[in-house]
Amino acid sequence: MITASLTYPRESDEWVKTVVLGGLLTLLGFLVVPTVLVAGYLVRVLRGTMHGDDAPPQFDDWGSLAGDGVRAFAIALAYGLVPAVVVAVTAGLAAAAAGPGPRSGLVVGAVGLVGGLLALALGLLAAYVVPAAVANYAEQGSIRSGFAVGDLRPVLTSGTYATAWLTGFVIVLGAGLVAAVLNVVPILGTVVGAFVGFYAVTAAYYLVGHAWGDCRGLELHDGEGETGTERPAV
Q: Cα–Cα distance between 136 and 76 in angstroms, integer?
């Protein structure tokens, strides 16, 4: 699956155009709208791969793409608010405990350490849940499905999803390391990193989509979107 995920973005005659567009949108992500469009593209990746479609989608039908992206962005933002709130509360408690004397310093340090570790743990948990939540939205088409515990729990606790998520995480991490190395040349790391990062996250969401389809027992489609063979048991 690792090899399949890394070749997936190239399984299209227009893959260069798709990667260039995705990289440019990623590079302009600070403008928010490009980030939303990339999120919409990843929804399409999930929607196709969960049904066994190994041909990557294209950047087209921009209105639909933006709609999917807004909903996926909202789901991710909702889960990300939890660790953000913990960070804010920790900062408030540390500020309240601040004062003269070494004892105050120890209290502030302890509060910061505990709060930081808790925020890190919750951040990793959110990063683990978000792809599955977006996949459930991609399958069912309702933003509420991104928070449907009954649908998410069996997938999130499965070895199939955990393996796919961890593999995808390693791929994205590897792309980040490549960008970091390239940063020795000013600007190069940022520019190339955007394209490598888009390629990597597309490969990672390929894995998540397949894992979601396996765990949910979804029907496989052929290349034209028609129902094809049954998904093998996992």
A: 13
